[in-house]
């Protein structure tokens, strides 16, 4: 293959990569209200800059554009700075997807950007010092003695968060997120291999193509997350609820019991009618928070979902009747505390019922058994209410 044909192929692949991530960026508009997704979008913005700067620099190298030394240095600086930004935003996005405690502190997230700022400062200094890259006396681009440091500073972010995702795959408490964790852990593998090959052989156009395809896979996973979460409570929706049960049936340990608890808000219609739908929405959010907190401290693996309306469902792995009764008490207590803290003008409580899942039992039967116990709990609540009003 002659140089001109090879150059055209390189540029075509890069242009296709730019168009692909630009399309993903366009489709992401309007879907980036959550903080996690905003970081996803910013990572794509940095990726577009990464692809565009590489493409323009290559067009100068192959003679399609005039090779101006200052512009080559500028484009390479943009290339490596956008690499650092891209890796940082992927890092933050991945941490959000893993529900890491790290991203709960904005100060920690800001401090974590220190490597990006170090990269920016060193790239500015590099214009004169040339320790990363420089243009020699013949006007040819050359790598400097610290060239590899640019990759270390940038890829440290992705290596760290993907390692955490890999470890999380084997964490039994993160069973429901296992598929997502596998995708996060594998995300950098192909781009990393392609990057190593292109580091050794810069003329081989692999980095942009592999990274754009990996981004497409993440985008599709993001869309799946969007359609699998309840937008109000941020809990799993019914689709995810059913998926969890199907996965459990295939992968579960026969020695580990699974229980399903159904939860229904008491007098929810009264809250809506008296205080408005906004207050009703806040009540549902409060119930979701009580479920999250209670299940988190239960010491069992759980999967929480909004089943529909004011009804919720929780799968609890490795439980027994005593543990389920303790969980019921914890949910009621936590919900009461949250309601008092928020100074809600109404009492908020829930009725609960649970059932043990039998081997290969259809989900419909499991729900019916749990609902039967739920209705019994609901009747007890109504009887107590009636006694109070008499």
Structure description:
The structure is a single chain. Helix 2 packs antiparallel against helix 3 (69-97), helix 11 (268-275) crosses helix 12 (277-296) and helix 12 packs across helix 13 (321-341). The termini are far apart. The chain has 390 residues and is an alpha+beta fold. The chain folds into two domains: 3-228, Rhodopsin 7-helix transmembrane proteins (Rhopdopsin 7-helix transmembrane proteins), CATH 1.20.1070.10; 238-389, Alpha-Beta Plaits (2-Layer Sandwich), CATH 3.30.70. The chain is 67% helix and 9% strand. The strands form two sheets. Strands 4-5-3-6 form a four-stranded antiparallel β-sheet, sandwiched between helices. The mean pLDDT is 84. The longest helix is centred in the first third of the chain and has 29 residues, at 69-97.
Low-confidence stretches: none
Q: CATH topology of the largest domain, anyone? A: Rhopdopsin 7-helix transmembrane proteins
Let me know the average pLDDT.
84
CATH superfamily of the largest domain: Rhodopsin 7-helix transmembrane proteins
CATH top level label of the largest domain: Mainly Alpha
Query: Architecture of the largest domain, according to CATH?
Result: Up-down Bundle
List its salient traits.
14 helices; 6 strands; Rhopdopsin 7-helix transmembrane proteins; alpha+beta; elongated; 390 residues; four-stranded antiparallel sheet; two-stranded antiparallel sheet; Alpha-Beta Plaits
């Amino acid at each position: 293959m002659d140089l001109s044909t090879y150059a055209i192929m390189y540029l075509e692949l890069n242009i296709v990569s730019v168009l692909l991530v630009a399309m993903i960026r366009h489709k992401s508009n309007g879907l980036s209200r959550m903080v996690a997704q905003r970081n996803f979008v910013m990572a794509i913005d940095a990726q577009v800059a990464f692809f565009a700067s590489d493409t323009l620099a290559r067009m100068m190298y192959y003679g399609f554009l005039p090779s101006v030394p200052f512009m080559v240095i500028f484009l390479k600086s943009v290339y490596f700075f956008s690499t650092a930004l891209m890796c940082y935003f992927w890092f933050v996005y991945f941490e959000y997807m893993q529900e890491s405690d790290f991203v709960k502190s904005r100060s920690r997230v800001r401090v974590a950007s220190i490597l990006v700022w170090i990269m920016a400062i060193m790239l500015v200094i590099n214009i004169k010092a040339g320790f990363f890259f420089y243009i020699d006396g013949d006007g040819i681009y050359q790598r400097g003695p610290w060239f590899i440091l640019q990759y270390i500073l940038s890829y440290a972010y992705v290596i760290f968060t993907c390692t955490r995702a890999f470890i999380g795959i084997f964490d039994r408490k993160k069973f429901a997120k296992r598929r997502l964790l596998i995708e996060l852990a594998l995300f950098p593998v192909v781009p990393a291999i392609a990057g190593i090959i292109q580091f050794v052989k810069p003329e081989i156009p692999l980095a942009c193509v592999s990274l754009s395809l990996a981004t497409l896979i993440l985008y599709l996973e993001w869309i799946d997350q969007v359609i699998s979460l309840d937008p109000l409570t941020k809990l799993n929706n019914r689709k995810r609820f059913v998926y969890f049960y199907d996965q459990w049936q295939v992968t579960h340990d026969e020695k580990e019991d699974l229980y399903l608890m159904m939860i229904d808000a008491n007098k929810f219609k009264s809250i809506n009618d008296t205080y408005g739908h906004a207050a009703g929405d806040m009540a549902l959010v409060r119930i979701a928070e009580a479920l999250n907190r209670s299940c988190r401290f239960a010491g069992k693996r759980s999967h929480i979902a909004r089943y529909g309306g004011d009804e919720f469902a929780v799968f609890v792995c490795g439980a027994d009747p005593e543990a389920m009764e303790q969980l019921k008490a914890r949910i009621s207590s936590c919900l009461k505390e949250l309601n008092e803290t928020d100074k809600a003008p109404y009492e908020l409580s829930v009725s609960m019922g649970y059932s043990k899942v039998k081997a290969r039992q259809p989900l419909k039967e499991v729900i019916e058994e749990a609902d039967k116990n739920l209705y019994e709990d609901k009747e007890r609540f109504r009887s107590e209410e009636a006694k109070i009003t008499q």
